[in-house]
């Protein structure tokens, strides 16, 4: 391939990348989004936090089809730090999660073992779902969607 041909390919590739990154924001409510919950255990309470989290994880998996991803991860720099990463199908799935009796029991049981709990939302989430999450009394930061896309993975 000549240098001119290579430059043409690079220009075309660059143009398609720019187009893809300039899409409008997603519609709030019917779009999947991410929730990150950061927990920090009290000294000597990490094992209890993990045990309680393991129990609720199994219940959420069985009872919440709108929860597409639900992981509990350890902070690599802090043995007392943990992160829930959750991907919801839509805002209704978050509202369903917030009304899950198992979640309420978990939060009540785990709270005495924590000295920190914050929540971050990323994406197009309905105002109703954001308000319901803030009504829990936890620290919530919503990073509103500015642009992006959701890839269709259906067969």
Rg computed from alpha carbons, rounded to a whole number of angstroms: 20 Å
Percentage of residues assigned to helices: 40-55%
The CATH level-2 architecture is identified as 2-Layer Sandwich
| Low-confidence spans | 1-22
Total beta strands: 5
CATH class: Alpha Beta
Q: Strand content of the residues, in percent?
A: 25-35%
Structure characterization notes:
The protein has 155 residues and is of the alpha+beta class. The chain has a single domain (24-143), classed as Alpha-Beta Plaits (2-Layer Sandwich), CATH 3.30.70. The chain is 41% helix and 25% strand. The chain is built from five helices and five strands. The protein has helices spanning 3-21, 46-63, 91-98, 101-110, 127-134; strands spanning 33-41, 67-74, 81-88, 114-122, 139-143. A five-stranded mixed beta sheet has the order 2-3-1-4-5, covered by helices on one side. Helix 5 links the parallel strand 4 (114-122) and strand 5. Helix 2 (46-63) runs antiparallel to helix 4 (101-110) and helix 3 (91-98) runs parallel beside helix 5. It is globular. The two termini are 36 Å apart.
């Amino acid at each position: 391939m000549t240098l001119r041909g290579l430059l043409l390919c690079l220009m075309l590739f660059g143009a398609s990348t720019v187009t893809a990154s300039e899409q409008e924001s997603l519609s709030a409510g019917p779009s999947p989004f991410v929730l990150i919950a950061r927990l920090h255990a009290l000294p000597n309470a990490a094992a209890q936090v993990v045990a309680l989290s393991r129990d609720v994880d199994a219940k959420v998996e069985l009872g919440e089809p709108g929860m597409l991803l639900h992981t509990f991860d350890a902070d690599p720099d802090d043995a007392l730090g943990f992160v829930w990463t959750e991907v919801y199908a839509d805002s209704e799935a978050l509202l369903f999660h917030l009304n899950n009796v198992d979640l309420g029991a978990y939060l009540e049981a785990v709270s005495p073992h924590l000295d920190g709990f914050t929540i971050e939302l990323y994406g197009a989430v309905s105002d109703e779902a954001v308000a319901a999450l803030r009504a829990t009394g936890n620290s919530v930061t919503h990073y509103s969607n500015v642009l992006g896309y959701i890839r269709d993975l259906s067969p």
